[in-house]
Amino acid sequence: MMQVSAVDAIKKDIAKAEKLRDFLNINSKIDELADETSDIKRINIFTLRSFTIENLIPVLRAKCFASDILAQITLGGFNQYLQYVLNDTSELYASRPDIVIIALRLEDMAPKLFESSILERDVLSFIESEVLNTIESIVKSIKQKTASNIIINNFAMPEFPGAGIYDYQTKSSLLNFVRDINLKLLELKEIYSGVYINDVDYMVTKKGLDNLLDRRMWYVAKNPYNSNYYLGLAEEYAKIIRAIYGMAKKCIVLDLDNTLWGGIVGEDGFNGIKLGESYPGKCYKDFQRELLKLTQRGVILAVNSKNNYDDAMEVINGHPDMVLREENFACIKINWNDKATNILEISRELNIGLDSMVFIDDNPVECELVKERLPMVMTYLMPDDPTLFVDFARGIDCFEKLDITEEDLNRTNMYRAQIKRASLQSQFESLEDFYRNLDMVITVKGASDFYIPRISQLTQKTNQFNLTTRRYTEEDVRSMAKDGRHRIYAFDVKDKFGDYGIVGLVIIEELNDREWFIDTFLLSCRVMNRKVEDAMMSFVCEQALKSGIETVWGEYIPTKKNMPAKDFYRNLGFTEIDGRYCLNVKEAGISCPDYFKINIEI
């Protein structure tokens, strides 16, 4: 069993670590716990590189561990990336990596670029084609032989322009060569699924190349960078890895006084709070703008404030400089309860896990209370200096996603509608009457490219009603959709209050001409307890009959969180045989509840 206290202690050490030696010490602790961390996700990473990158390993392992990922990282030999790719029996393929990192420098791939101050346009064009073709051949070979996700470093701007300021005046320059080739690397992401670009150029620009280079180490050990580079690079990789495995947080819970505006509205009044175009009010207004940007990426906002409700709502709805209005918040708790109790209520009303939530407050006492009572909630204390608010908001990187789905864009409205449904339910004596009043429609969709990101997201995030809890990346889903052995059915649910989006998923493996196996059967907690799962299984049985299938098999793999799905197969008439569940499709009496209208768009 995982030693929770020891793991939490390591995570605290990771949060405080600043130097490479700190991460080396942390890795020793991670190794000591490795055999006991049975609940943590384990992945294999293989790195193809053209330069010395050993210092990356301890930092990246620690950053992954902080997100409950235990990473085994293998480094390919120095500047031997092609040998690993072209040899079918190489360690690259033998290690069966979940993720392959391609970390190559232009200086190593195309040294001619840096040997002359001025290069002819046709020479630049030839080098560009050579570099892009090499990277594409690497990607293509890996994709043909593995199911790995691939992270490709783009290229940082050169330390010094080849022709000085002339480089800024012509398209045929080293600077513009790098800009152009980085844009063309994005085309690989469009051609090959499961390929992601790590923007090293942006990272270097943000941190400053002069702060990352180590000239002495380059000449001594072929290591061009100092430890700051590897700290930053590991953080960028960790963001992408978290996003690949769907580990983004869902909700920010916010205080109001001295958080969304300066001052205390109950004491300073509507006109006395600091919010506007001058300092410090501008800092609070810009902080709200950053939060609004997050809602546009699918993050939901909630309010958790000790305040007089009418005073606070007057500011939210009426102050001319408020960027966030009532409609931008999925849930609002303005009362005199303690903050931890309110967060529990928000979690229940929105039906999301506490581990999906982030809490922000300016009061260190409130933050400590939440940390103590709800350690699974990520808690942040607002900076004392208002000029740091925007950087603070941008620095919260637990919401990163590699795709923004239609459900993400509409998430706040979905959760606000959910609260309206709960209010309406109290007006009906029976659940069936309530469900009939909702005018619910289920639409069955296939695994098109448009829906694959959401399908993958569901497998990564759904815990309670998930019979097998198999986690699939977009690349996994795309492979199953094309292999001819799987059927993927996605279920969209809507009612008179709004569209939930795709909330149900069934992945079927066709065993033979007479038998199907249900690999994945899951339903988002947003629509649990409405018999949507019965409608889904009814549809599966209909499709089985049409396909001449006699027997459908399923299994339930218990976890700490999926107890609500424990008796699903038994309740629908499946027979348990050697730990699996079997249904004779012709004799099954599974029907779709009559309060659903079913549409099929496959």
Automatic annotation (TrEMBL):
Source organism superkingdom: Bacteria
Residue span(s) of domain FCP1 homology: 250-386
Domain BF1531-like N-terminal as annotated: residue spans: 76-225
InterPro entries assigned: Acyl_CoA_acyltransferase, BF1531-like_N, FCP1_dom, FkbH_domain, HAD-like_sf, HAD_sf, HAD_SF_ppase_IIIC, SGNH_hydro_sf
Name the record gives this protein: HAD-superfamily phosphatase, subfamily IIIC/FkbH-like domain-containing protein
A Pfam family hit: FkbH_N
Species of origin: Acetomicrobium flavidum
